[in-house]
Design brief:
The protein is α/β, with parallel strands linked by helices. The protein has three domains: about 160 residues, Up-down Bundle (ABC transporter transmembrane region fold); about 120 residues; about 250 residues, P-loop containing nucleotide triphosphate hydrolases (Rossmann fold, 3-Layer(aba) Sandwich), CATH 3.40.50.300. The chain is about 65% helix and about 10% strand. The strands form two sheets. The protein has a six-stranded mixed β-sheet, sandwiched between helices. Strands 2-1-4-5 form a four-stranded antiparallel β-sheet, covered by helices on one side. The structure holds adenosine-5'-triphosphate and magnesium ion.
Length: about 600
Amino acid sequence: MQSESVQAIKNGIYSFQTITRYVPGWTFCYVFLTAISALISPVQIYVLENLVDSVVSAWNVQHIFWWGTLLIAVILLRSGFSFVKGLVMTMLTRDFRRGQIPVTLRKFRQIEYACFENSSKQDLLNKISENPQSEILSVFVQMLSIISAVISTAGVELLLFRASFLLGIVSIVTMLPMFLLEGKAANKETKLRWTMTTDIRKRYYLQQLFVDKDALQEIKLFDAKDLLIDRSEALTKKINTEMKDTLKQVIRLSSGSSMAAFIFTGAALFVLSFALLKGNITFGVFVSLVTALTSFYGTIRGTVGAVATFLRLSAKIKYYQDFLALPERMDPLHGDEKETADPATIQFDHVSFRYPGSEKDVLHDVSFTIFPEQRIAFVGQNGAGKTTIIKLLLGLYVPTRGKIYIGGMDSTELSDEKRQKLFSVIFQDYQNYELTLRENIAFGNIEKLRCDDALFKAMKDAGIEDLPTKYDQGFDQHLGRIFEDGVNLSGGQWQRAALARAYLADASFIIMDEPTAALDPIAESEMYTQFAAILKNRGAIMISHRLASAKMAEKIFVMENGRITEEGCHDELLKKGGAYAEMWEKQSSWYTERKMTV
Ligand SMILES: Nc1ncnc2c1ncn2[C@@H]1O[C@H](COP(=O)(O)OP(=O)(O)OP(=O)(O)O)[C@@H](O)[C@H]1O
Ligand SMILES: [Mg+2]
């Protein structure tokens, strides 16, 4: 527990330093205003004491006027400060986000690709993507409000001790159980909120399934409706029970602390009245301290609440620090300066590869050369290593042994920009962006975002040139369901949109890692024919289980268990009578049967 508190304080300081780095001016203003407003409570008590004394004991009109004016000024200052503090916080938040969000995004861009495939790191990334800026800000605000409450309470304590030593002691002794009990209550409340958030999120997911069109179809088909409703109700029951139990405990603890507050107030009143009667304190001190005591308990409750929230939130700062410490991709030092001899010759030279954290190699001694403008296909069973080859080619991973040369240059020395010019890729799990049609296509080459002709051409090549004419908004039609006016595309249309995106890029090679799953074999075959026609002077690397793509290729590499076992063109491989010929034999009926029935 102690080390937890020390860590929380360290995290608090870290959030303070982070914010200061981005918005030093606003941070200074906020800290300054907080410090001044912390002193207002004790100052107000002191001014009230003097005002009452100048009325009761001396009836000094001049004093009454000055102390009265001062009291009004202090009260106005209190509300004025909280207003200005709010404004400063708004500016601070705005500027901090403006400065910090690009840093987080840049970090996301630089993180080693392997982190995205590692489940614990993926978890961390999910947590971070939720909004690290607000957590840093909340920790900062909570920390300052605790410091401010401590200063304010210390000021009031000073006045209590000044009035009567005994009163000071009584207030501290009764404050301890209040702190303890309120602390426990606040802890229970925040814990409940956390577990509830997880359960509520789970319940939200279940409810969302009933809204999701695709999911609903399956749910109805599999008759899983009742099961989902039961699970959602069970969660509601669990949430309610937990809430009831926690509330009971909180009420019990808070009653204990209210009792302590009651004893303290009673004892304080007794001590103060006794001191007043004995003439040890003035009437002004009596009135001002009685007034102060009424808000004393509330301040302590608030502070304890702030401490509990601070402890909880500051744990989240650790995620942010871990995120910043994630390994980054090494940018090649001189990548841009070196010119490759022939930008589009790819050579794998005895490449073996093992995924980080994995026990065994998934590629074994793979060697091949792909020449510019060549059409290549990789075929092989699930898990043979086809996608892995593409990931290595794109520089997402580095070979464990062997080298990859691109245009005669070690591919690790290739800059990102050069790689982008060389390869345009559509992965198996390509992305459907719920943005406009224009953006969906232009992500292939963002320079063409406003170039309707180029977008149209890419879409024509992909076979979806009719899409913009179908909608009033044309290229600016929103796709997907996030936007109110969004329209959903069919699986095949989404796929063709991904294709158009790849066509738009002016890359030397277009890589297609089986993006054709949503198409039937004939449509896939037609698409590849179309694809071959539009390639012109570009090379292509095609990956597919189905051999329609392979037939178009000048050279086919057959992969088995991380090795290239056969290579050659379609006819050569058929003649050879090996694994490829066997696969072709099995699959050829897909193409002939359907043609016969059409
Ligand atoms: N991130 C990863 N970490 C560890 N092992 C992985 C990872 N990704 C893939 N593998 C393993 O590497 C092997 C090759 O996978 P790869 O994705 O390259 O196969 P593939 O030929 O593309 O298969 P498919 O046709 O199913 O797409 C598989 O055994 C797979 O389990
Ligand atoms: Mg694959």
